[in-house]
Amino acid sequence: MKKISITVIVTVFIVNMGFAAFNKDDAGTSSAQFLKLGVGGRATSMGNAYVGVADDSTAIYWNPAGINRIENVSVSVAHNIMFENIFYDWVSGAKKFGFGTLGVGIQYLSYGSIDETDDTGLGIGSFKPNDMALSISYGREIKDVSLGLNVKYISEKIKKTASAFAFDIGGMYKMMYEKLTLGIAAQNIGTKMKFEDEKESLPLNIKVGGAYRIKKDWLVAFDINAPYDDETNLGAGLEHALRITKDINVFGRAGYNTSLKNTGGLNGLTAGLGGSYMGYCLDYAFVPFGDLGNSHRVSLGIKF
Questions:
Q1: pLDDT value for 124
Q2: Residues 49-86: pLDDT tens digits?
Q3: CA-based nearest residue to 269, from 61, 48, 27, 76
């Protein structure tokens, strides 16, 4: 009971700090916005409510403490088809050792090819802007608490490149006979991104949430995000597993995230499907962006 009380007190303090400091009036005041895009078909189809669910190598993005839940090795790859020739990819891997769990993750966002003109409107070629983040992760369990840390190198390229360094920290705690998992993470704590003479802060985010196993085949999750450069947003997700055979499972997922509520269209709703065979899992997510268009996300996870 004492551990639970301490966890609740710390969580309430950190979230209240976020609510007090961050609001929608700060929108557009940070760089590296691609760090908010989320990774993995399972997580994004559940409304990005994953800080208490993360149990594979995508935990490097959502909550580095989650890599401690990997039994041996986990590998994840994802490809996201967005709009206007934009695509977004993720590759990660993590392995458990006697001294803890180590992992590495790479995010890459390409904006396609953009025509370049001079001040008269004459075409003079093209350029290919892109964003990238490399994360190295370490996790360790201390008694009943899982802890994790990421060290990150972040770059953004238009024609010239700007870069920054950051770290993420996270924690997880299981309770109620391991049916409920609470998670907390602070993301993108680091240096400023410098473009020419201008310096911009990274999109610091404080994330708190949980996952509750209603039954063996039903999982619900929720997240509260307090970003530095926007108002607080909420995410919620649901997953149902249908067992076909001993080794084959099919998953249906749905979610909602308030960060997309003003985009028009389906206003924050997400959905997806998944299938697993032994240690392999293929997931698909549909994430609408209102008037901008829809994104389709496919990811493959392997555990062995």
A1: 74
A2: 999 999 999 999 999 999 999 999 999 999 988 777 78
A3: 48
Question: How far is 210 from 215, CA to CA, in rounded Å?
Answer: 16
Cα of 128 vs its chain's centroid, Å: 25
Number of compact structural domains in the chain: 1
**DSSP code per residue over the chain:** -HHHHHHHHHHHHHHHHHHHH--GGGTT-BS-GGGGS---HHHHHTTT--TTT--STTHHHH-GGGGGG-SSEEEEEEEEE-STT-EEEEEEEEEEETTEEEEEEEEEEE---EEEE-TTS-EEEEE--EEEEEEEEEEEEETTEEEEEEEEEEEEESSSEEEEEEEEEEEEEEETTTTEEEEEEEEEEEPPEEETTEEEB---EEEEEEEEEEETTEEEEEEEEEETTS--EEEEEEEEEEE-SSSEEEEEEEEEEGGGTTSSTTTTEEEEEEEEETTEEEEEEEEE-GGG-EEEEEEEEEE-
- Residues 297 and 96: their CA atoms lie apart, in Å, by 27
In which band, very low, low, confident or very high, does the pLDDT at 27 lie, cut at 50, 70 and 90?
low
Place of tokens 């024609």: 159
Q: Which of 184, 221, 212, 189 is nearest to 10 (CA)?
A: 184
Residue 283 structural domain: 2-303
> Are 209 and 52 spatial neighbours (Cβ–Cβ below 8 Å)?
yes
CATH number at residue 244: 2.40.160.60
What's the pTM? 0.87
- Report how far Cα 268 is from the mean position of its chain's Cα atoms: 16
